Amino acid sequence: MNLGSSDFMAYIKFKELSKYFDFKTEVKEEDLPFYAKEYVEDIEKIVMAYKNNKDYVVFTDKKMILFDRDAMAVYYKKIHMIPYSSISTSAINFKPGKVELLFSFDSGYQLHINFINMNHNKKENIKALYKIMMRTKIAY
């Protein structure tokens, strides 16, 4: 396949996922808005979900779904569906009151998710989620 310069530029232009998200509030499945649940397939199970003032993240047993809303534009949101099988490297970092999940994907994208206002029990929940994500990644 011969990639022309315009194809290569589109790839570079699209590579914007290298960012971070801060989440502090866990959300029960029944409290998720409809638009967050409609991206979960029938064969998937929601493991955990979090929100901040404008964004949501839903973790299923197969993928994470990030809803990245623009604070300035009411109707604008990006939806990132990231299968755990696309994770090439990852790390979990425990800090006082905080847990960080760091991901690099096969595509070269990077993602940094912070969970803030974490006590010991909440950190254990994130650790359990991380184990599910990595176990699912290995199963593929």
Kindly describe this structure:
There is one protein chain. This protein is of the alpha+beta class and 140 residues long. The protein has one domain: Bacterial Pleckstrin homology domain (PH-domain like, Roll), CATH 2.30.29.50. The strands form two sheets. It has a five-stranded antiparallel β-sheet, with helices on one face. The longest helix is centred in the C-terminal third of the chain and has 20 residues. The two termini are 27 Å apart.
Distance between the termini: 27 Å
Number of helices: 3
Instruction: State the low-pLDDT regions, or none.
Output: 5-16
The computed structural class is alpha+beta
Q: What is the CATH fold-level name? A: PH-domain like
Return the string of H and E elements. Answer: HEEHEEEEEEEH
Name of the CATH superfamily: Bacterial Pleckstrin homology domain
Please report which band the strand proportion falls in: under 5%, 5-15%, 15-25%, 25-35%, 35-45% or over 45%: 35-45%
Strand order of the largest sheet: 2-3-4-5-6
The top-level CATH class is Mainly Beta
The quaternary state of the protein chains shown equals single chain
Q: How many strand elements?
A: 9
The CATH architecture category equals Roll
Largest sheet: 5 strands, antiparallel
How many structural domains? 1
- Radius of gyration from CA coordinates: 16 Å
Proportion of residues in helical segments? 10-25%
What's the average pLDDT?
A: 84
Shape: globular
